[in-house]
Structures are given as structure tokens and as C-alpha cells.
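## retry 2 of 3
previous attempt timed out at serialization; input unchanged, resubmitting
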Amino acid sequence: MKLDESLFQLPGLRRGLRFYVTGASPCPYLPGQIERKGFTHLSQDNPDALHDQLSRAGFRRSQGVAYRPACPTCNACRSVRVDVANSKASKNQKRINKVNADLVRKPIEARANREHFRLLKAYLQSRHDGGGMSDMGYREFCAMINDSPVQTLLFEYRIGEGDDAPLAAVSLTDVVRDGFSMVYTFFDPSLRQRSLGTFMILDHIRHASELGLPHVYLGYWIKDSEKMDYKRRFKPLEVLDGGRWRALEDSE
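## retry succeeded, writing output
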């Protein structure tokens, strides 16, 4: 279905870009709300440059598509990113970093394998059983990881050095001009005490700082959703307000 492109007029965006809208479906985060997404294909010349622009405008990537919410009666989804230069870990986050000091980060080409898939299935069964991804097969998993027209990495986190060290966690991460965009993370659910979801965000912030990158994009924050509210613990957090990024206030 073709979308009213006036809803996605973005400063500096190339002309002729076509946006579409998905069908309506129940919102997975807010009961009683209807979800729709506007999207465009990253199949044009220089998809990395287009992806950079769209990321700064609040879009997320899924395979070869960039999307953002276009819900008819709700605007609760807010795009957020971490201000890396001014980021400070809380007391609890420092504890999480210390607990995971034995993990070794290794960036690799975004190519799926069976080891990754086994970890994902264990994660989904434990954390999201019955969710939309719980019945994902290996072919769909390969598409999620491999089908990217932009610069994308897998960050593996292993307990110790070497490719045969136990795999604890994985992040599928896009590299954009102004930082990292964390697309999807999963981890060993038996390592609950490590708080690996939080650790991977902290590690991305640390790595972005090492590389001089100003932002880590965390996707959408929803104030009234317990599943999404954890993102505000990474401070300072910026929120896209209209066409402008600003600091998210503690009172919001």
C-alpha cells in the first residue's frame, strides 16, 4: 500500500524516494493499540548514505528495508540514542561491566551460522516464547543476519579468547556515519546474572567512544511499556522530537 509521502518529508532527503505502509496489526507493546509502519527500500545507489540520513530521522533497518512507526492513533514510539561523549555509567552499570570483564568482543562479518542460530533459539525460548520470532527457522535467521545492503557487523562476545571459547552473546549492529545502530541482540539465557543485554549496550557505548563516534542508536523507547522503558537507564539519552534531537528529561 502506498503511503502519503507528506508524512515523511525529511530535510535533505533525496527526491523520488517512495514510502509505503504496512497493514494494521495489534501493537506488541501497548494493549489496545494498532501498529502500522511506514517503510522504504534501501535499494538505491549508495544505500549507506541513505541509511545514515534515515537513521538520524528516526528510522530503523530490517534486512533491506528502513522503517518507522506510522500508527494511526498513537505516537508513543520515540526514537532514542545515547550521547556517547557525555555518557556515564551508573553504579549498577559499573557492576555489570565488572561482572563481564572476562568477555571478549570480536567484530565479524554479518554472516549467520549454526552456532549463532542455536544461541538465538535458546534466547527466544527463554525470553520471548510465543512471540513473533519464536518459530523462526534457520533460513529466516540467515535472511535477518545476511541480507543487509549497508555496513553491518556481528559483535560476538565470548567467555575468553579464541573462536572455541563459549559464545555468550551476539549483537547485530549497523555502522552509520555518526555511530552504531543496534539492530538486534541475543544472549545465553543461562547467564542471567551477567545482565548481558545491558552489558552489550554499555560495550557499544565504550567502543563508540574509542572510535570517536558520537551516538549509539537504541531504536524506539515507549514510556508506558515495561519491555522498552529500560532504555532510559542509559544516560544521557537523546530523543527525536519532531525533526530535532534533544536530551530526554528525567521527568518525561
